[in-house]
Each structure stands twice: as structure tokens, then as C-alpha cells.
């Protein structure tokens, strides 16, 4: 009887189940997923989708189906993110979980086995900052999606101060994706080696795959129509005439060319001349420009070292028209520490590395933020690069004296001004790549 007369006592927050919303806490989304879980999952998906979308042009240039796969991944991740923000459902979390696991599995396979089909069949790709960032975001997305399926209201009881602090996590995911797509690894993202040379599955190419040169779109050789190919062949024949004119380092130096930087495996030794003719302001390569490359590349830096190729330059504001056809992919460099001297130009700290002005000043050089446009041309008999086309970035015929392509670390470059081979001398490869 006493119980009947007792006034009703409402339950307090301490009486509620652990996953029940607390007074003053943000309400759960429709569908049972707590808002913070939905937003965090959406942020990770958007971050990964942005990276996938940024990679579409490069992969599309290499192989259309692969570019479409990247586009499809981005569209799926964006669509799921929108759904999770506007009207979350547990099936969305399930799709996010499965797709993220599939994407991570595909990434692991290409970095350890190589694609089993397509033009880059069994090329083992390098892990770079941009794709590792994408995989980390997808890993977090998979974990959050699993949590949303198992404990969908886990964060529903979090009060506003906690939610404000936790909101830094999805914000960090978005910032990470932005940093990744603007990094040099995104600009230079390509399969295995940027020259397009296919490596046999499981084969040790002695460091060639570690080489990289500048920021450029993916390089792939495309068949041209007969008229275009005939004109390109005519242009390339002129470069062979230039090679015959400057067969050795001594002949180039007699014509005013000076050494620019050390001998590097895959790139050789560059000897440059920088008059208006070599700088090519209009971005179109005509016959006279062909006879005046900015750099003539040699297989060493001794007077009798032999000509191996060329580097043409352009001061055009946009990527040059260059040679006829679609196969000449031009590149730029960033963070180049340049040192001018009577014997030529050195790059004592390399290029495309996170070099500071203070580091550059310490070696008596000038920091150049970004170069203008360049393209390599490998047409010299014996060095004509059949692996990745005449416009490849690196040439496997230019190795170190031990037959490898390994270089000394960049911090040792100031003491290796003539060559940066780990073996300390240039040479020819002792194997087929």
C-alpha cells in the first residue's frame, strides 16, 4: 500500500543502459547509427574517394579499364558518404566494410604480386605516400563500419564536449587526403617504374624500380596513325644526327656544353647549354629546336664517354606540345638545389626531396622551387630504350659499374659531385630488365 502511495521517481542517467542516449547528448541518426560514427565513416570514405578520383587521369592514361575502376571506387565512396550523412542505414555500413576490405586487398596484391592482367601484368608497384594514405583511410573506414554494425549506438551517449574533441578525427581524415593528393607522390604516381618498363614477376632488377625522375603523368606508348608516326620518325632521325655531331663528352664541351650534376643511374650525365634556342619558349619542337637540346646525355663524365640521349626543355607556361603524337610526356622537378660553378651546374642535394632553404644555403647553392618542362629522348643506337619507349624517364642501359642502379643517400650527394652511384662509378648493366 505504501508503494502505491509513493510518488513516481523518473530514472536518472545512471539508471540508463550504457548505449542509451544521455540527456543533452546528440540524438542518434535514423537507422540506429550514432551520428559521430556515421560522420567519421563518411569522412574516411570521402578522403579515400578524393584520392581515388585524383588518380583517375594517370591510370586512365595507362589503361582505360583501370582508370574506370578508380572512378567507380570514388563514386561508390562518395555515394556512401552522402547517404551516411543524410539518411544512414546499416546496409551502408555493410557496403562500406566490404568495399574497403576489397580495395585494401587489391592494393596489397598489386604491391606484392602485381596485377594478373592488363598492360602492367605482374608489375609489382611501389607503395607511395598517396596510396598508403588511401589504404589507411580505408582501413579506418572498415573498422568504423564494423563498429557501426556491431555497436551502432556506441557513441550516442557522448556529451557535447566529448563530441567536439572527437570531431578532430574526421577532420584529420579529410586533411590527410588533401595532403596526399597534393604531394609529389601523387604527381609522380605510376606503375613500378615510371618508364613503363615491365619487370618480370619476382625478378630482382637491382634497384632500377627505385628510380624516379620528376613529376609527370603516367607514361605509356600509344600507337599513332601512319602520318603522325612518319613525322615522329623524321623528328627522331634528326636527334640521331645530333648524336653523331656530339659523339663524346669532349665534343659537347668543345661546343659550349657544360656538365650539370653528377652521373646518375638510369639518367646518365647531363651536359647543358642554355641559350634562347635551347630554352624553347613556345613549347613546340621544330627542326631547329631538335638540333639544340638543352642537355646531351652521356654514359659517363670522362672526355671519351659516349652519347646516350637527350633532354629537351621548354619555358612554356603549360605542358608543351613538343613532339608530334601523344607519347612525349614532359616532366618538372621541385626543390632543386642548384649550384653554379666554372665547370658546370651541380645539384648537390638532388631534386624532388623535402629540401629546405637552410640546407641549400649550407652547401652554397640556390633553392629552385619548381623547374620548367623537360622530356628525355633515347634514340642513340645502343641506348635506344625499347623497354618503355624513346620518351621514357629512365634508361636501363645506364647503370653503375657493378651493374646495379643503387645510389648513395641524398645527404651524401654533396661529396659525390661527379656521380652518385653506390659503386662510385658509371657502367653498363650486366643483365636484362
Characterization of this structure:
By secondary structure, the chain is of the alpha+beta class. The protein folds into 2 domains: 13-187, no CATH class; 208-427, no CATH class. It is 38% helix and 11% strand. The chain contains 14 helices and 10 strands. The protein has helices at 2-5, 35-54, 56-62, 64-86, 90-112, 129-150, 160-166, 168-181, 184-187, 226-245, 249-254, 276-279, 287-290, 357-362, and strands at residues 258-264, 268-272, 295-298, 307-314, 334-341, 344-346, 366-370, 373-377, 399-400, 426-427. The strands form 2 sheets. An 8-stranded mixed sheet has the order 7-5-6-1-2-3-4-8. Strands 9-10 form a two-stranded antiparallel ribbon. The model is unreliable at 1-10, 18-22, 24-30 and 190-204 (pLDDT under 50).
Tell me about the biggest sheet? Answer: 8 strands, mixed
Report helical residue fraction: 25-40%
Number of E-state strands: 10
Radius of gyration over C-alpha positions, nearest whole angstrom? 28 Å
Strands ordered across the widest β-sheet? 7-5-6-1-2-3-4-8
Strand content: 5-15%
Termini separation: 94 Å
| Number of helices, where a helix is a run of at least 4 consecutive DSSP H or I residues | 14
Large-scale geometry: elongated
Structural class: alpha+beta
- pLDDT averaged residue by residue: 82
What is the H-and-E element order? HHHHHHHHHHHEEHHEEEEHEEEE
Count of folded domains: 2
Q: Give the low-pLDDT segments.
A: 1-10, 18-22, 24-30, 190-204
Amino acid at each position: 500500500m505504501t508503494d502505491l502511495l509513493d510518488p513516481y521517481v523518473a530514472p536518472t542517467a545512471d539508471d540508463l543502459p550504457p548505449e542509451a542516449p544521455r540527456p543533452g547528448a546528440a540524438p542518434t541518426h535514423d537507422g540506429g547509427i550514432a551520428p559521430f560514427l556515421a560522420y567519421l565513416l563518411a569522412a574516411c570514405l570521402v578522403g579515400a574517394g578524393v584520392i581515388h578520383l585524383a588518380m583517375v587521369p594517370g591510370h586512365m592514361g595507362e589503361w582505360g579499364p583501370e582508370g574506370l575502376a578508380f572512378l567507380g571506387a570514388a563514386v561508390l565512396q562518395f555515394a556512401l558518404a552522402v547517404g551516411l550523412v543524410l539518411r544512414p542505414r546499416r546496409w551502408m555500413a555493410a557496403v562500406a566494410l566490404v568495399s574497403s576490405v576489397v580495395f585494401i586487398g587489391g592494393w596489397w596484391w598489386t604491391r606484392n604480386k602485381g596485377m594478373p592482367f592488363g598492360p602492367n601484368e605482374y608489375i609489382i608497384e611501389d607503395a607511395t605516400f598517396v596510396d598508403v594514405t588511401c589504404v589507411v583511410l580505408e582501413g579506418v573506414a572498415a573498422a568504423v563500419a564494423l563498429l557501426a554494425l556491431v555497436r551502432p549506438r556506441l557513441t550516442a551517449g557522448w556529451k557535447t564536449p566529448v563530441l567536439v574533441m572527437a570531431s578532430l578525427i574526421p577532420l584529420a581524415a579529410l586533411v590527410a587526403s588533401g595532403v596526399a593528393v597534393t604531394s609529389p607522390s601523387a604527381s609522380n604516381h605510376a606503375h613500378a617504374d615510371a618508364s613503363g618498363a615491365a619487370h618480370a614477376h619476382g625478378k630482382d632488377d637491382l634497384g632500377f624500380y627505385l628510380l624516379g625522375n620528376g613529376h609527370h603523368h603516367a607514361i605509356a606508348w600509344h600507337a599513332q596513325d601512319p602520318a603522325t608516326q612518319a613525322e615522329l620518325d623524321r623528328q627522331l632521325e634528326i636527334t640521331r644526327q645530333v648524336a653523331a655531331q656530339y659523339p663524346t663528352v669532349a665534343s659537347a664541351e668543345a661546343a659550349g656544353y657544360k656538365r650539370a650534376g653528377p652521373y646518375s643511374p638510369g639518367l646518365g650525365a647531363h651536359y647543358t647549354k642554355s641559350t634562347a634556342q635551347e630554352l624553347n619558349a613556345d613549347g613546340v619542337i621544330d627542326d631547329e629546336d631538335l638540333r639544340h637540346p638543352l642537355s646531351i646525355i652521356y654514359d659517363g663524365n670522362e672526355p671519351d664517354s659516349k652519347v646516350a640521349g637527350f633532354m629537351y626543355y621548354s619555358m612554356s607556361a603549360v605542358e608543351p606540345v613538343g613532339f608530334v603524337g601523344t607519347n612525349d610526356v614532359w616532366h618538372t622537378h621541385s626543390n632543386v638545389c642548384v649550384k653554379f660553378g666554372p665547370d658546370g651546374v651541380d645539384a648537390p642535394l638532388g631534386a624532388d626531396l623535402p629540401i629546405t632553404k637552410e640546407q641549400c644555403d649550407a652547401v652554397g647553392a640556390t633553392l629552385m622551387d619548381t623547374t620548367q618542362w623537360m622530356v628525355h629522348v633515347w634514340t642513340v643506337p645502343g641506348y635506344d630504350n625499347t623497354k618503355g619507349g624513346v620518351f621514357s624517364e629512365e634508361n636501363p642501359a645506364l647503370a653503375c659499374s657493378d651493374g646495379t642502379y643503387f645510389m648513395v643517400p641524398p645527404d651524401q650527394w654533396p661529396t659525390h659531385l661527379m656521380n652518385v652511384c653506390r659503386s662510385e662509378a658509371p657502367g653498363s648493366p650486366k643483365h636484362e630488365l
